[in-house]
Amino acid sequence: MMNEFPEKLRAAVGRFQAQDLAGAERLCGEVLKETPRQPDALHLLGVVRLAGGDASDAVSLINQALEERPRNAAMLENLGVAHLALKNYATAENLFWDAIRLGESHGLLFMRIGIALASQGKLADAEDALREAVRRSPGDPHIHLNLGNTLAERGRVEEALASYNRVLALEPGHPAAHFNIGNLHRYAGRLADAEISYKHVLAVAPDDENSHNNLGLVYERQGRLEEAAASYRQALALGTDRAHARNNLGNVLRAQGRLEEAVGCYEQAIAESPNHIDAYVNLGIARIEQGLHDRAEALYQKALHLDARNFEAHFNLGTLLKLQGRLPEAVAQYRRALDADPKRQFAHVALADAHRRIGDLESAIACYRMAIELKPEDADAHHELAETLTLQGELEGALGSYERSLALKADYLPALSGMIHVRQRLCDWDGIEELWRRLREAIAAGSAGSISPFGVLSMPTSPAEQLACARAWAQRELGPFALARIGLGFDFSARGPRNRLKIGYLSWGFHRHATAHLVAQLFELHDRDRFEVFAYACGPDDRSAIRARLRSTCEHFIDVSQDSHFATARRIHGDGVDILVDLTGYTLGTRLQILALRPAPIQVNWLGYPGTMGTECVDTLIADPFIIPGEQEPFYSEKVVRLPDCYQINDRNRAVGNRVPSREKCGLPDRGLVFCCFNQAYKILPETFDRWMRILRGVPESVLWLAEANPRATENLRRAAAERGVAAERLVFASRKDLPEYLVQYRLADLALDTFPYTSHTTASDALWMGCPLVTRTGETFASRVAGSILVNAGLRELVTESAADCERKVLELATSPGRLSDIRRRLQASRDTCPLFDTPRLVRNLEAIYEQMFEDWSKKPAATVRRP
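-> structure tokens emitted (869 positions)
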């Protein structure tokens, strides 16, 4: 065919083959000036324009050539190549098949079909075409390279590596093959191999910006941050598209704690490439770390404006919203992220966590199970599923999930501490001493950050260990709010003396909950001439009588259960609260994030949590002289302020059932002394139970009346009793009842026994209010001293013992001395309405005096400003 070409056209082909595109185009133009519709000149000029990057003009020229010679296979193939460059993949594919039908059959054409098919997502068909290309042209490295690309996209890593290695066998220094091998190793986590591959590229192409950039990614994942930064800077120096490397450099600087420099990188990347979505997302992350949440949210929204299905933008926005407590919005964003990429396992975990925080446990469990299906070896997901099952009350399922988590990661402390707590709730004590030992060793080693502060209160731990857990937990959970509160700009400098102090009470328990029953009379007795009272309810509205009573007696009752941490903090600050009292602590429903935002100048821990918060965002802990002796103050991060009597408030107007049930109805025998303990099962530890069983053996015909927790705990306790020589039927279990019916049960009990180290709290004052004495053992921790404080302030100091042996001895003395026990019961009945424990008006006056002194002390400070971390 070349012989039919005009001489100028042959010369044009030669110029094209010599890569002299301008010369080739000039000669084609001369031919077309002489013969305007010459098809070979039109075709060749189209190919020249295509090589020069003008695919649109190439399409036009080759189409003109095909009008003159419509069944030319070469023209159809090159027209397909032009459409391939224009990303018209289906059109390109059809043109390539047309060329084959006209007789073309070389391997390069099948490679091009494979590229067109792969670009349409038809990866299986693309693989078939590329394998046919390999069969026809086994010595072409480009075909092996594209087959490797398709296999890599199909997730068949080892086959892809084999194809790339065949490229290297044909052309040892092939940079694209080395580069793609490096990418496969990097995605698989084989970072050392990836480093070698990228360095092979740079050995033959030292100015390859992408290899410098990706080598930086390898160094970054290896923690070699200085080398990563150097690689990114090299990519910046070489590249024309600098935004990508600049964004990555920003990530390294942020990891190094150089936040301002990182922000500068991200902003410059956006300036250079206004549509660079990753830079917007990463700048959003940096803004969160700076505490600038509003600016972060705007950046994520900008990214989503550019790409409405961008996974990272949806996911990070969801995480920001969850951090702020905007949980329904967070759920929506996580769902959009998963719509974009349903295989991202960690997003299922994040969505599950948001569902759990809302209280939608069923949805949370489903999401955790999906996360585990995607990644069965994820110890974290098994742990979080266990935590959720625990909240749902499925304790045996939770135990299994904790065990699977620990089987995957033996030193995983969150699972260890969670499993211990569930084992305690099930009264499953086999090997539990060894588990406590492992946990305490972890605390001693400085690994307390992932251990629940509440969980360790019921374990044999010291005040120092409890403080370590609280501090580490607070730093991890509340740290992100330290800077965020500065961005809120709360200012208290203008506050001074006022006629009425504003007191805010923040609690999850303003419903049918022990806290609500304790504080009900507090709101009724507050001096409204001196105090304006706000109650912020974080928990559910169960429409109970106690909820209605709190609402009716509190001056301002605000339901913030659906409000974010930030919105609630703004509300509290806007209300002008002077003293914010947290009544929840680290128990269920905690909202300490609100206190971390510092909405009030004085913030207090009282009543709801028997321990330290371990954080500077809580200024004061209200206790009493018995609960925290002076020598124990170093184990509390708060300033300890003491009420003169018991720290626990009580409701003198609590409702009590009118009719005492029969012993038979309660499952009690007709005769014999009745010991009782209605504490939760997790407080019952083996040493305590051993003591109880010795008491039962020492008091014939006596029974122990316990609160029914769960069937497994009941079964385990009865078996444990039998193993200790006590008939299982001597343990009687009381089903859960409403407060009036629960209280009246104490009329049938002779003596209340106590748990240790987490002693009776509300149940202690309940027993005494109903005239049932309690014997306790006191320790060094807050939780171990509460029952002692209650007894001392009820005038029953002699029932407080200092050791396990003394406690057991005291119980046996009383149980075998009916006269002494009756005398104590008479004294208790006679003094109940006048003793400090139940003198609620007296406690409220003392509490109000503490509030006034707190505010006076704060007002005298040189600068009444937000306390900084």
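Residues 644 and 859 are 24 Å apart (CA to CA).
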